[in-house]
Amino acid sequence: MENTKEEGSGRIIAFDCLRVLAAFAVVVLHVAAQNFSISVRTFEWNVYNFFDGAVRWCVPVFVMISGALFLNPTKKVSIKKLYRKYVLHIVVLFAVWSLFYTVRYSLLRGVGIKDCVRIFFTGHYHMWYLQMTIGVYILIPVLKKITETAMLTRYFLLVGLVMTYVIPTLLQFPNIGILRQGVSNMKFYMTLGYPFYFVLGYYLASETFGVRARRLIYLLGLLGFAVTIGLSGWLSWEAGTNRALYSDFSLNVLLESVGVFVFIKYHFTEKKTGRRMKGIFSRMSGYTLGIYLIHPFVLTELGNRAGFKVTSFNPVLSVPALSMVTFLISFLLIYIIRRIPKVGKIIA
């Protein structure tokens, strides 16, 4: 990602910005989902749908940042280092935080030991991200080989685009749906899912896009937002809550994610970002994974102990307000945890 490094520090300003924005977007997503089961024919549901649809890019962007960093040719990661430093760290994070959530919300509420063990290995509802990350990390040596050449990178992305987004979209139509089993039998697992976003992040970070290309990307991104919010609302209005277009592997969310990534890449550079703003993003960036891990606890406790829920007042205000409070408290808690000698930076 050109023109985004802090002079003398090697930090990439756009990545810091993306991490912070994506972490906040995850909080917004979970806040908006708190009361999503109400009737779709209400003002409140449509507000939740708006906020939910507007931040669906958050997880793909997190994965794309990791891909841009790990697949950069200058980053040398041996298989031994990959497992000892990166995979092991994610395993430790999962074990620590899954134990915390299992004890807090299961064991202390009288859930049996057998069920607690199952809950521990499954993880709290948001911890699938760590499990997914382990799977993607294991593929890094293979993905690095692919991204060594531009042709293979584009080929991988093309196959992934067709198999993950285009064909599944077409299979939703009645007369084409009969091909579903045949396509499924092809088992394109490696190009499906988050490895695609991982490689895409590297590609978008390393490619240079002209003004016209960027405008097209932004236009398609806006179209993605419109489809996610508008079409989800319309489909739900017609047949009850429909979350198909919320998937990270829907074409509209892909367009959202690419639009956000490229926009930040070109608008939060060394020259365009003020010193104070750079300082804020660079400092907060290191806390984003911890914020992701602890924010469900903060959100739950705000509701249970302080009575502050998304239903407390008009959702137009309650969603952003509760999101901001949850985000800031999560940041403060992780700030404190990371200052625990020896273990703080390992577990948060």
Number of strands: 0
> Approximately what portion of the residues adopt beta-strand conformation?
under 5%
Number of helices: 16
Question: Runs with pLDDT <50, length 5+?
Answer: 1-9
Name the structural class. mainly alpha
Helix percentage: 55-70%
What is the overall pLDDT average? 91
3D shape: globular
Q: What's the Cα radius of gyration?
A: 21 Å
- Write the element-wise H/E pattern from the N-terminal end onward: HHHHHHHHHHHHHHHH
Separation of the first and last Cα atoms: 27 Å
- How would you characterize the largest beta sheet? none
InterPro entries: Acyl_transf_3_dom
Organism: Candidatus Mediterraneibacter stercoravium
Subcellular location: Cell membrane
GO molecular function: O-acetyltransferase activity
Question: How would you describe what is shown here?
Answer:
It is a multi-pass membrane protein. Belongs to the acyltransferase 3 family. Residues 13-334 form the Acyltransferase domain. InterPro entries: Acyl_transf_3_dom. There is one protein chain. The protein has 348 residues and is an all-alpha fold. It has a domain at 13-73 and 222-347. The protein contains 16 helices and no strands. The chain has helices spanning 13-32, 43-54, 58-70, 79-105, 113-122, 128-138, 140-146, 150-170, 180-186, 194-206, 211-239, 251-267, 275-285, 288-305, 315-337, 344-347. Helix 1 packs antiparallel against helix 3 (58-70) and helix 4 runs antiparallel to helix 6 (128-138). Residues 1-9 have low confidence and may be disordered.
